[in-house]
């Protein structure tokens, strides 16, 4: 079995202080689906290929952590009754023609499902077990954050209309989802073997310009903080990520500070980081005494060229790594992203991110390493999905 302990230790050290090298990892489910040639329905409903392909892909690229990820924002809504549509080469989508909550009376229908049997909840729970077995590490636990789950069961347009015309209904929906669905579901996940001490909510709908900053303040942040505080009292770390769009705000700092509250650290994603500059993120993280992660642009990783990818990695390391407490993340990328582009990002992180940092990173030339085809790597590791 590949030893993931070195990378896990490096990530832990980067959260607290300064490791030997800037860590790098990413969640690439669609890319794994594409490279392994697994049908979408199989990949997103059968735990073994879902986990194995992603863990092997993380090993193939030399990531510091294997991130087993999927359409985590759909799991609870599907278990509550939303239909899921499958399309080849892509993540599942909730059927846009169906909504679970049409009016206040429907709130009573939102009862906690059987977390070990409903929808693809068993798929996710078994995936945690397999990932732990395959890596020797507790798998990351995921859930759909309250606001995004409200969009999934009510519909984005209807929810925004509620926020404007009947905010008490919007709050009632968010409270019910948080208290009766998410809290017990997170507890079930954390207890699954191997037990974990943290869970992360995904919150893509809580982003600008999808929503406004006042909506984030009143309808997003309080419910994530409710989860954070409740589980912190029980000894767990629970928060939410995936919110983006701060570069579209006149003053992005309050949104960045809200992210820190909801996560316990700061994560910035391209293109926001490119638009605002990494320095703002470094300053904000330092002011609040938290770790920082910067996410590399999916379009850049997909389109390249290699020289531009290496230059972006070098620039972010030059800006953020001197402080320590810094990690690079590769954003979710299209399935047909050339493997050499991801290899380039990892190689650049290893070249430029070694501590103590070189005084002039721009003077260090980048050379693209040889890239073994993923199919050859899988054969060498003795794996095929069927």
Polypeptide structure, described:
This protein starts with a helix and ends in a 5-residue tail after the last helix. The protein has a four-stranded parallel beta sheet with strand order 1-9-8-7. Strand 5, helix 10 and strand 6 form a beta-alpha-beta unit. It is α/β, with parallel strands linked by helices and 386 residues long. Helices cover 50% and strands 9% of the residues. The protein has 17 helices and nine strands. It has a single domain, classed as Alpha-Beta Barrel (TIM Barrel), CATH 3.20.20.210. The radius of gyration is 20 Å and the shape is globular.
Mean pLDDT: 95
Sketch the topology as an H/E string, one letter per element: HEHHHHEEHEHHHEHEHEHHEHHEHH
Strand pairing plus helix content: what structural class? alpha/beta
CATH topology: TIM Barrel
Assess the beta-strand content as a share of residues.
5-15%
Any idea what the CATH architecture is?
Alpha-Beta Barrel
């Amino acid at each position: 079995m590949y030893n993931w302990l070195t990378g896990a230790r490096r990530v832990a050290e980067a959260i607290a202080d300064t490791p030997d090298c800037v860590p790098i990892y990413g969640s690439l489910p669609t890319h794994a689906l594409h490279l392994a040639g697994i049908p979408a329905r199989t990949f997103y409903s059968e735990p073994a290929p879902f986990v194995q392909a992603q863990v092997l892909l993380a090993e193939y690229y030399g990531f510091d952590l294997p991130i087993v990820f999927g359409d985590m924002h759909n799991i609870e809504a599907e278990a509550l009754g939303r239909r899921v549509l499958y399309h080849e080469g892509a993540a599942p989508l909730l059927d846009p023609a169906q909504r679970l909550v049409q009016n206040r009376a429907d709130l009573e229908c939102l009862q906690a499902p059987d977390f070990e049997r409903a929808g693809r909840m068993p798929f996710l729970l078994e995936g945690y077990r397999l990932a732990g077995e395959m890596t020797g590490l507790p798998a990351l636990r995921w859930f759909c954050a309250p606001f995004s789950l409200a969009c999934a069961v009510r519909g984005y347009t209807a929810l925004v209309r509620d926020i404007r015309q009947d905010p008490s209904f919007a709050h009632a929906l968010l409270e019910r989802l948080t208290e009766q669905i998410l809290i017990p579901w997170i507890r079930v996940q954390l207890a699954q073997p191997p037990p974990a001490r943290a869970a992360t909510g995904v919150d893509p709908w809580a982003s600008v310009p999808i929503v406004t900053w006042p909506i984030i303040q009143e309808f997003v942040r309080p419910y994530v903080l409710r989860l954070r505080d409740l589980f912190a009292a029980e000894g767990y770390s629970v928060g939410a990520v995936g919110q983006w769009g701060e570069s579209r705000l006149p003053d992005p700092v309050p949104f960045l500070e809200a992210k820190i509250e909801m996560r316990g650290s700061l994560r910035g994603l391209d293109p926001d980081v490119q638009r605002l500059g990494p320095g703002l993120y470094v300053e904000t993280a330092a002011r609040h005494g938290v770790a920082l992660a910067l996410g590399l642009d999916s379009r850049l990783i997909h389109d390249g060229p290699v020289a531009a990818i290496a230059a972006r990695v070098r620039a972010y390391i030059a800006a953020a790594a001197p402080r320590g407490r810094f990690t690079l993340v590769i954003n979710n990328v299209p399935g047909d992203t050339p493997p050499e582009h991801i290899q380039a990002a990892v190689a650049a992180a290893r070249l430029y991110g070694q501590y103590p940092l070189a005084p002039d990173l721009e003077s260090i030339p980048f050379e693209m390493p040889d890239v073994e085809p993923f199919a050859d790597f899988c054969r060498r590791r003795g794996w095929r999905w069927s």
